[in-house]
Amino acid sequence: MTSSSCGDGSLAGIAWGGRGGCVEKPAFSVLLTGAGDRKVEAVRAIRTVTGLSLWNSKLLLDSAPVAVTEPHQLEVAHEAARILEDAGAHTTLLCNWCDRTFTRGAAPLDPAPCEGPWSAEACRTSCPPVAL
């Protein structure tokens, strides 16, 4: 099968379906839900994750709850959440397909079936990959 069957010719963000088609993979955003006790460290972590200026990072922190990242693969969202949580901030991950939120490290993340096109076994929110 060629990548042209998916539209733009790109393989990024694509999962191949069992019937010869392909579907876009879900992406996950990091939501900042609280600043925590270490606000200066949280601002630095926001700068690290987003690349924003000091001023804009502080404004983002003061706007919690707010999305800190654009949708990314689950592993990228987990890493951004880890950086923020290590700095004392409180985060939640959001699936862009089914709009379910979950915390990093919880498993199963959400036992309810996915509202998107994923089967229960394939939904990364319902059944995350096992960490080694």
Give a brief rundown of this model.
The chain is an alpha+beta fold.
The residue fraction in helices comes out at: 25-40%
Query: What strand order characterises the main sheet?
Result: 4-3-5-6
What kind of assembly state do the chains in view correspond to?
Answer: single chain
Number of strand segments: 6
Low-confidence stretches: 1-21
The main pleated sheet reads as: 4 strands, antiparallel
Rg (C-alpha, Å)? 17 Å
First and last CA, distance? 31 Å
Which class of secondary structure composition applies to the elements? Answer: alpha+beta
The number of distinct helices, counting runs of at least 4 residues, comes to 3
Percent of residues in β-strands: 15-25%
Please trace the helix and strand order, writing H or E for each element: EEEHHEHEE
Would you tell me the overall average pLDDT? 74
The rough form would be described as elongated
Overall description:
There is one protein chain. The protein is elongated, with a radius of gyration of 17 Å. 25% of the residues are buried. It has helices at residues 39-50, 54-62, 74-86; strands spanning 14-16, 22-24, 28-34, 66-67, 90-95, 101-102. It has a four-stranded antiparallel beta sheet. Helix 1 packs across helix 2 (54-62) and helix 1 (39-50) runs antiparallel to helix 3 (74-86). A hairpin with a 5-residue loop joins strand 1 and strand 2. The protein is built from three helices and six strands, in the order βββααβαββ. The chain has 132 residues and is of the alpha+beta class. Mean pLDDT is 74; it is low at 1-21.
